[in-house]
Write a structure and sequence with these properties.
The structure is a single chain. With about 290 residues, the protein is α+β, with helices and mostly antiparallel strands. The protein is built from ten helices and ten strands. The chain folds into two domains: about 50 residues; about 240 residues, paralog of FGE (formylglycine-generating enzyme) (Alpha-Beta Complex), CATH 3.90.1580. It is about 40% helix and about 15% strand. The strands form four sheets. A four-stranded antiparallel beta sheet has the order 1-2-3-6, with helices on one face. The protein has a two-stranded antiparallel ribbon with strand order 4-5. Strands 7-10 form a two-stranded antiparallel ribbon. The protein is elongated, with a radius of gyration of 28 Å. About 30% of the residues are buried.
Length: about 290
């Protein structure tokens, strides 16, 4: 390119139209600068794309590992939803939020929590299963590291957000389960799994908002404490005051987080949207809310 410009410059100098050669030279120099910048931009984009291979990042409401979409996130328009539970009418009100269409898979847990992560064949068969990540502390650690890796803020849904989404939000048809009155259409539970751990599947019908497996699959942890849910905690606290042997149980129970939705080994009644467990679910899955 420099040789070309030099040759043009010599041609212009020998031209009878000397008064215009400086302007043309400036224009040619400008074109050269633009082409050089374009080369650097293309190189930057290429390097950025290559650096994403194997990394975790967020793009257009999707969570990627490398070039593969691991989870999509669905916007949920907030509002008020009236629910009839055991002949008692209650209202659920939430602000708008964005939540993952599926439960967190083991693949994402492995990638975030294991610095020496290797995608090997021995472990691969477990990666498509929903994570059974154990305690609330494990989930909070995972979310903290995921936030650092991506630069985004993920969190657990509140109990109200979870239920509002599971019931279909503003498009709710008041189904018994999330997306249907027929549990076999929407859920993996002990009636169709023989209580065997199941892979995350989009073969079942999603609910009104497009969420999968909010009934069955894996118990899903929320950020709401049991004591915040009016779980007869007043009665439990009275029992604890009367009997010291109850005290530790009540403290552990009420300080635990609510888990919802039932699991692959749960009976049908535990997968109903009106069911809220009255015991501490020790091992849970989860789905994530993405705060923009």
């Amino acid at each position: 390119m420099n040789r070309y410009l030099k040759k043009q410059f010599e041609v212009l100098k020998a031209s009878p139209y000397k008064q215009g050669y400086k302007l043309i030279l400036v224009l040619l120099s400008f074109v050269l600068i633009i082409m050089t910048i374009s080369v650097f931009i293309d190189k930057y984009k290429y390097n950025k794309e290559m650096s994403n291979i194997g990394d975790i990042y967020v793009k257009k409401r999707c969570l990627y590992i490398g070039n593969d979409i691991i989870m999509r996130f669905i916007p949920v328009k907030g509002g008020n939803l009236q629910v009839i539970d055991s002949n008692v009418v209650r209202n659920i009100y939430v602000e708008s939020f964005i939540m993952s269409e599926i439960e967190v898979p083991n693949l994402l847990i492995a990638k975030v929590l294991r610095d020496d992560y290797v995608d090997d064949n021995a472990a691969e068969k477990y990666f498509s299963f929903p994570a059974n990540n154990g305690t609330k502390e494990n989930w909070l650690l995972f979310i903290e590291k995921l936030n650092k890796k991506t630069g985004y803020r993920f969190r657990l849904p509140t109990n109200d957000e979870w239920e509002y989404a599971a019931r279909g939000g503003r498009f709710s048809r008041n189904y018994k389960y999330s997306g249907s009155n027929d549990i076999d259409e929407v859920a993996q539970y002990n009636g169709n799994t023989d209580s065997l751990y199941q892979v995350i599947s989009r073969q079942k019908k999603p609910n009104e908002l497009g969420f999968f497996d909010m009934s069955g699959g894996m118990w899903e942890l929320t950020s709401t404490l049991i004591e915040e849910y009016d779980y007869d905690t007043k009665m439990l606290n009275k029992m604890a005051m009367r009997d010291s042997s109850w005290r530790m149980y009540v403290e552990d129970f009420t300080k635990a987080n609510i888990a919802r939705g039932g699991a692959y080994d749960s009976p049908a009644e535990q997968c109903e949207l009106n069911f809220v467990p009255r015991s501490h679910i020790i091992k849970t899955g989860a789905r994530l809310v993405l705060d923009y």
